[in-house]
């Protein structure tokens, strides 16, 4: 039996290429493969990547969920950073939006341009 490997996580969006471009800039990833409605990006040296597919009926999740029936968050990306303040500012300059609700001091919840929540976080000071 051959071992299995997680190769990518796929995020839906109205425009797969635009969202892939945002995350490539944010993470320093490169495009590994692309089709008209799908893009795979990943670290330049290899490793697990992120994929994006165009979904015309995509509805952004609501975070935090406010009421029954809201489109719920299915997953989010946690991105470790060394400097939370400067990386939050950089993410926002790239097109992210800071969430109104921030549950922790060492985490910043943001939304990517398609509305997916993601977290920048840093190790707590010891």
Automatic annotation (TrEMBL):
InterPro entries: Glyas_Bleomycin-R_OHBP_Dase, Glyoxalase_6, VOC_core. Residues 5-126 form the VOC domain. PROSITE patterns: VOC. SUPFAM superfamilies: Glyoxalase/Bleomycin resistance protein/Dihydroxybiphenyl dioxygenase (SSF54593). Pfam families: Glyoxalase_6. PANTHER family: CONSERVED PROTEIN, HYPOTHETICAL FUSION PROTEIN. This is VOC family protein. It comes from Streptomyces cyaneochromogenes. The lineage of its organism: Bacteria, Bacillati, Actinomycetota, Actinomycetes, Kitasatosporales.
């Amino acid at each position: 039996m051959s071992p299995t490997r997680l190769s990518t996580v796929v995020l839906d969006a109205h425009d797969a290429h635009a969202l892939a471009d945002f995350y490539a800039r944010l993470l320093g990833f490169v495009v590994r493969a692309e089709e008209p409605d799908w893009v795979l990006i990943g670290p330049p040296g290899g490793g697990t990547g992120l994929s994006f597919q165009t979904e015309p009926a995509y509805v952004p999740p609501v975070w935090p969920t406010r009421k029954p029936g809201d489109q719920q968050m299915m997953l989010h990306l946690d991105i470790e950073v060394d400097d939370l303040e400067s990386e939050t500012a950089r993410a926002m300059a790239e097109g992210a939006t800071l969430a109104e609700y921030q549950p922790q001091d060492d985490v910043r919840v943001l939304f990517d341009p398609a509305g997916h929540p993601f977290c920048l976080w840093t190790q707590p000071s010891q």
